[in-house]
Amino acid sequence: IERTLVIVKPDGYSRGLTGEVLRRIEAKGYTLAELQVISPDRERLAKHYAEHEGKPFYEPLVDFMSSGPAVFAIVEGHRCIEGFRALAGATDPTAALPGTIRGDLGRDWGLPVQQNIVHGSDSPESAEREINIWFAG
Ligand code: ATP
């Protein structure tokens, strides 16, 4: 069965949107296989976001992601990678379609990083790589 790593990012967590995000995942029919609340450390964030190193939003992104607690979930279900990304909507929450998590619950706050509530892995390879970073052992 396919798995994906979902993160309720610090903005989603601090706004009290964790339950709403998890509700949508369960309502879609996916399974929450593992769940943890942690304050992401910069070392693991650097691994997680290695592909963005050097981009202008990289440092602000790591600052934002390490700013407070976040919820990490391993989500399971056939085609859940594609399915969760459809639930999440476009990266830019202003442009994300209504009906999606970002479109319904997100907006632009005028900050250097897109605070867009959730993360979802973009491929099976990314999912396994990211799950190993955050759920080692
Ligand atoms: P995610 O990987 O978080 O599900 P995504 O795949 O839509 O979102 P990525 O391209 O992987 O987006 O970028 C990772 C994160 O970096 C985004 O979710 C967003 O928070 C931030 N980000 C991406 N592009 C920009 C940008 N141009 N300006 C500011 N922040 C950005």
Automatic annotation (TrEMBL):
GO terms for biological process: CTP biosynthetic process; GTP biosynthetic process; UTP biosynthetic process. One of its GO terms (molecular function) is metal ion binding. The active site is at residue 119. Pfam families: NDK. Keywords: ATP-binding, Kinase, Magnesium, Metal-binding, Nucleotide metabolism, Nucleotide-binding, Transferase. The keyword Magnesium applies. SMART domains: NDK (SM00562). Belongs to the NDK family. This is Nucleoside diphosphate kinase. It comes from Calidifontibacter indicus. The lineage of its organism: Bacteria, Bacillati, Actinomycetota, Actinomycetes, Micrococcales.
